[in-house]
Amino acid sequence: MHEDDVKRRWQAQSFSLPQRSAGDLLAEATAFQRRIARRNLREYVAGAVVVPVFCFYIWLFPYWVTRLGSVLVVLGTLVVMWQLHRRAASRVVPEDFGVSGLQFQRTELARQRDALRAVWLWYLGPLVPGLAVFMWGMQGSSTKPMELLVDLMMLTVFAAIAWINRRLAAKLQRQIDALDALAEPAERS
Amino acid sequence: MRNHGQELARFLRGYERDSGRLEELQQELLLAIWQSLAGFRGECSLRTWVYRVAHNIGASHVARSVRRTGGECLELEAAELISDEQADMSRVERNIDLVYILTLIHRLRPLDREVMLLYLEDIEAAAIGEITGLSARNVATKIHRIKALLSTQLGPRSTCHARG
Predict the structure, then answer these.
(1) How far apart are CA B76 and CA B108, in angstroms?
(2) Which of A4, A65, A119, B68 has its CA 20 to 30 A from that of A27?
């Protein structure tokens, strides 16, 4: 029997996997960070619009409840911007994209997932008190049907934002689960 | 990939014959390795790690293929019987015929073909156990059967010439 010959000839077969350069992998991770940076830029721009508008409202509206609501919205928006930077800022991908770079990518997925999961806490939560007080100041105690509709729309938007972000977080979690599952020993047949 | 690309390419050929689907499988493996390496913490060798990923990818691929085509896989024991039935086939023709070996591998159950592919790559039994999740005893039994299968298939005295 020539087992070794079989093995030797088997191993002498020369095949190769498709080339996937470190540059390609680096590009994919960089694209992910660019998407994060673009998303954050949109949020910062929105914040840069909201803050001066509600500062103007503080000056514009005479009723103290409305003015208080405006102050709270401005403060809430600043909290959101700070939290966005703290929890979900984009990061620079390591140039030497080896195993440590891959670890970096996984950590980033988990960090963005956590930020999306807690969006109700740091993104929606800080805005709720200000908007509630502002609307109260604007509408008073006897709410008209149209004003109720506006309130309902606002609640719907908030609920939709929370739901969409939960779904995005779940999507990232599935990617992370798939990575972890790959490391598990295969099922015995 | 520089270190293990060739052997992984051979390994995947044990899971898919069609060149188009093989290329897709290779891409799938590369992506899976890239993603899974983020969780690599050096608890086993890098070679074992990438084979473990390849094992999962290959096993899933075979399961999908079997569902799609309704084909059946053979136990090692059954493969030995087929060898006996075909004993009149020229051993000179079959001797260390890599195409023939590959055909045989493709007929085996996923875990059996896995062990055979790893055995052909000279992976140690302990590492085969780590990759496949089989016990050391189970690996030893399967390797014993693989040796018997190769012996029956290739014969003891033939000369060596490859066609693949």
Answers:
(1) 7
(2) A119
CA distance B66 to B73: 8
ipTM (interface pTM): 0.70
Which amino acid makes up residue B92?
V
Contact of A29 with B118, CB cutoff 8 Å:
no
How many Å is the maximal CA-CA distance in chain A? Answer: 99
pTM over 0.80: no
Tell me the C-alpha distance between A158 and A132, whole Å.
12
CA-only gyration radius of chain B, Å: 16
Q: Which of B129, B164, B149 is nearest to B13 (CA)?
A: B164
A3 and B6 within 8 Å at the Cβ level: the answer is: no
Tens of pLDDT, residues B20-42:
888 778 877 877 777 676 667 77
- Which of A74-78's residues contact partners 24+ apart within 8 Å by CB, and which partners? A74/A50, A74/A130, A75/A126, A75/A130, A76/A126, A76/A127, A76/A128, A76/A129, A76/A130, A76/A131, A77/A47, A77/A50, A77/A51, A77/A126, A77/A127, A78/A47, A78/A51
Tell me the chain A residues in contact with residue B119 when contact means C-beta distances shorter than 8 Å: 7
Helical H runs in A61-182?
A: 64-88, 99-117, 119, 127-139, 145-182
The encoded tokens of residue A42 equal: 């949109």
Cβ of B8 within 8 Å of Cβ of A17? The answer is: yes
- How far apart are the C-alpha atoms of B140 and B35, rounded to whole Å? 32
d(CA B24, CA B5): 15
